[in-house]
Structures are given as structure tokens and as C-alpha cells.
Amino acid sequence: METHTLIDNGILKQHLIDPEICIRCNTCEATCPVNAITHDDNNYVVRADVCNGCMACISPCPTGSIDNWRAVPVGRAYSIEEQFSWEELPGELAPHELVATGGEPTTAAAPQPAVEAPAEPGTQVFRSAQYGATVPPWSAAHPYTNLFPPKNPTTATVVGNFNCTEAGFESETHHVVLDFGSMPFPVLEGQSIGIIPPGVDALGKPHYARQYSVASPRNGERPGYNNLALTVKRVTVDHDGNPVRGVASNYVCDLKVGDKVQVVGPFGSSFLMPNHPRSHIVMICTGTGSAPMRAMTEWRRRLRNSGKFEGGKLLLFFGARTQQELPYFGPLQSLPKDFIDINLAFSRTPGQPKRYVQDLMRERAADLLALLRDDNSHFYVCGLKGMEEGVVMALRDIAQEAGLSWETLGATLQREGRLHLETY
Ligand code: A2P
């Protein structure tokens, strides 16, 4: 891992995240190879005593909020507690404040291990995130990003909002269509936007933008219109199953046609689809992680209908609790079998064994192996954080059982922008 010297002559170049621009998408924390990034309910922050300047987090950040640096005397680094409380970045220190005081960078928190705990002798820690690409496929289109940064949102009008799961179940997901009128808002499949809920949080501060993947293709939810769709799950319980009312998700799911929303973005420059003929796309998702997969599938469907583009294989692995809670179950059924190969994993169907996407991938090992061997294949994983490791391990095992080196193949997929991980 390449690192940069952060300390020069007693002065630390401290890595900081701009809380006014950050959309709290967790990409940096998931990417950091040394666990230097952490967060609380307010901010994402960097531990000065752990960050080694490897820059792995810089390009994946959708907003650029990650790329902030302040010169501070070593020993006077901003602690993570200070950073948690910030509403904006501090200014640069004046020259007289930059007198080196010596000592190691400190944080008020207990020191964190710079690397993961050593594994048992003979075992290796598997870190799925290291295989996630930070560059797009070579044939991806050029994305526009940050046209409307968090400090300068634009306004969109709601032109559609419906439940795209079956009513009456515990989890409910909405398909929401936003129209930008005459304001240019170009997006590509795989990009995301931010929605700013109105009002203020418990501390009286305006809400920060919540990030949602775009579910429609580049030429609009309705072709030729300046609109896009989102797939938003209504959050009613927290990670531990306790009742909670998600501020942004409930706001979005309750929007009415004609309502105006504050939008920032677009964000994302690597989770993008290939555009060259006969390129294959393997899509692995759970729940609302299906949004970018819907966008890519629909773009390929429109290209196919145009008769002017020869696509490769489309292979979808999609997991949900039940068929009724799987977003877009109905529309998926009407896609031609020779266009897309659909594999659905249900984990809570009464009377049926629990099935996860990685279980189905292992069942389709022969087909996935053929695709892993093909340079034209691109793999996209989006959805629950917990799924990521199981999915990448399934790819690894499929490769290794056929005698391929996963270390070589995984590194190639990562370097060539052919394995993309977006989990939350
Ligand atoms: P589970 O029934 O165990 O929660 P959700 O509806 O919460 O968004 O989840 C979408 C699907 O992802 C559910 O079927 C859920 O199963 C499944 N899931 C949960 N954890 C994992 C995991 N570690 N790997 C793969 N799928 C998972």
C-alpha cells in the first residue's frame, strides 16, 4: 500500500472530512484499509493517529468531502471528539499557531488498531472491500458529478410515487419519480443523488442529504424526459429491530405528486455500467440495492429494442425476505428469458428454507465461472453490508474450485473496474 508522509518538521498534514458536504454514505469507512475512519450520528471523522495517507478513500468518495487537509502541530491534531461536534471545517491555522510542539498525533479516543487483528496462524483475514473497484469499466460513459453540491441544491417535482412491493407486509418499498423540468440533471445508471429532508434535526440543524441510487436509465424514467426514479424502503426499525421512524425514507415514501424536493448530486464515478457490445453484467443485490440493477437492465432493454446494440449476458441474483417484499417483482417477470437470467433468493418464505443470494450464486457456479473467465464480464454488488462478504467469498470459491487464483483474478477485477461493491 502506498502511503504519503503526513508529518514534516513537527507539522502534521491532518486528514479531515468536510461535514457540510459529506452525505454520510459510509464509502470512506468501508474503503479505508487501516480502519482510520469512523462515525457517530453526526459526522464521519478520521483518526489522526491511524490515517497513513494511503489515499485509498479519496477517489471512491462521491462528493469530494473526504479530500480535506489541515496543517497542525503534531500533538495538537483535532481529536475525533472535536470532529464529531463540527458543523463545518475549521480554517487553516495562522503561521504563529503552526509552531511545532512535537509528540505523536493524538486523539481523545482509545488508540485503534491500524490493521485488523492478526488471524489465527495459518488463516488469512478475508476483506471483501479490498476487491471493490474505485475506477469505472473502460467503456463506461463519462459521468457528471456534483453539479448541485450540498450547499447548492436544486429542486425537483414529484411526478410519481407508488409502493413497488405488495401492500400489507412488514417492509414496504416505494418507486418515486422526480422531474427536473428545464434544469439539466444528467445521470448514468449506478449513480446516486441526495435528497434533503425539510426541517431540522434534534439539534436544530438542517438535515443532511440522504443518498439514494438512481433506479432509471440515463435517458430518463420516461425516455426522453428529464426525470429519474428512486427505490426507497420505508425505515420503521433500526439495525437492532427497535421501532424507529427514518426521517428521510418516510419523508420520501410519503411524498405526493406535485411536491417539491431539494436534490443534490449527481454522485458516483465508478459504479457505472460497461457500454461496449457483448459486455456481460452480473448483478447481485438485496432490497433497494436493486435500484442500480434496474437502471442498467432497463438501459440494456432499451438498447436491445432499438436493434442497434448487441449486449452480452445479463445475470441477476436478487434477495428479499419474501416474493411480496421484493421490489419490482411483477415487472421482473415480464422480461424475456433470453434477455436476462433471473435468480431470486427468498429468506423468509413460510415453509421454505432460508436462501441468500450467495447460495444461489454457488448453485450457478458453472455459469459464473465462465463469466469470471471472460474479460468482458462486469460484477455489481449492491445492498446490505452483511451480504458483501458472502458474495465476494462465493466468487472466490467458484474461481478457486476451478483452479483459478483468486488473488490474481480479484486484483484484476478490481484494477479493471469490473467488480463494484456498494453496500450499506
Ligand atoms: P433476512 O431474512 O436474514 O433478513 P431487507 O429486507 O432487510 O432489506 O433484506 C433483504 C434480504 O437480504 C433479506 O432476504 C435478508 O434476509 C437478506 N440478508 C440479510 N443478511 C444477509 C447476508 N449476510 N447475506 C445475504 N443476504 C442477507
Commentary on this structure:
The chain has 424 residues and is an alpha/beta fold. A six-stranded antiparallel β-sheet has the order 9-8-11-6-7-10. The chain has a five-stranded parallel β-sheet with strand order 14-13-12-15-16, sandwiched between helices. It has a three-stranded antiparallel β-sheet with strand order 1-2-5, with no helix packed on it. It folds into three domains: 93 residues, Alpha-Beta Plaits; 168 residues, 3-Layer(aba) Sandwich (Rossmann fold); 114 residues, Translation factors (Elongation Factor Tu (Ef-tu), domain 3), CATH 2.40.30. Strand 3 and strand 4 form a beta hairpin. Helices cover 19% and strands 22% of the residues. The protein contains nine helices and 16 strands. It is globular. The structure holds adenosine-2'-5'-diphosphate. The site of adenosine-2'-5'-diphosphate (A2P) has 15 residues, from strand 13, helix 6 and helix 8.
Could you name the key traits of this structure?
alpha/beta; five-stranded parallel β-sheet; globular; 3 domains; Rossmann fold; 9 helices; Alpha-Beta Plaits; Elongation Factor Tu (Ef-tu), domain 3
